[in-house]
Design brief:
single chain, Thrombin, subunit H, PilZ domain-containing protein
Length: 138
Amino acid sequence: MSNLQLFIRHPDEIPLDLEVIERPVARSDDSIPLRLVCRLPVPLECGQQVSINARSQIHCPDIKGQVDWCHPQRGGFELGILFPDSEHAMRVRMFEQVCHIRRYRRLLEETQGRFLSEDEAALEWIARYAALFPANAL
C-alpha cells in the first residue's frame, strides 16, 4: 500500500458530535489511510477513541475512529480522525457523501433559488462530484 493519505473534510455547517469512548477500537490489518477532517469548539487529545454522531436528521451509522491530530484554529480546533478498518472508513465515506449532498442542496437553494428533492440533489451531486470524492479502493 502506498503512503498516500486521503482526507474528507466534514462540512462545518452540519453539526457533528464526537463522543470519547473508553474502550479501545481494535485496528485491523485492512485499515486504510483515509482521514476525516472536522472542526470542534473543544480540543481532543491525540489517540483518543471516538464515536462519530450527527446532531442533524442525517442517519449516522455506527462509526468509530481515533483522533490522529488536533490543531487550534480560529474559533475552535481542527481534528484529523483515522479509522480502525475499511468497514468504518466506508461508513464514514458514505455518511460524508450524504452530508455533502445536503450541503449542495442547501447551497443551490440559497444561491440559485433552485429547490431540489433529496433524490434530485443526490443524482446531480453524484454526476458532478462523486468521482472527486476520496475512495482509496473502498
